[in-house]
Amino acid sequence: MSGETSNTPQSVPSPNLKTEDAAYFLNVKPTTLEQWRWNGKGPRFCKIGRCCIYRMSDLEAFLEERAFRSTTEAQAGV
Asked: pLDDT at position 46, please?
């Protein structure tokens, strides 16, 4: 059965990231994400028990909301 891929959970990348992985994706420190969660300024997240999980779609939406065409546009917060 060489050449076949397994459909086990280990072979499917998760669209959900823990804080450390989400921070790496956004190029910020995990403590920055923790502060953003506390202040309500960061990307949406899910709380599962004591663990915070970030959906890739929420991280991408967070980035899209902060995409600008010029520094003037960014400074105006348009």
From this structure: 96
For 1, 20, 23, 42, the CA distances from 63, given in Å and listed in that order, are 42, 17, 12, 10
| Beta strands, E only, the chain | 16-18, 46-48, 51-55
State the pTM of this model: 0.75
Task: Give me the half-sphere count of Cα atoms (radius 13 Å) on the Cβ side of residue 17.
Answer: 19
The more confident residue out of 33 and 4 is: 33
Each domain of the chain, given as residue ranges in start order, spans: 13-67
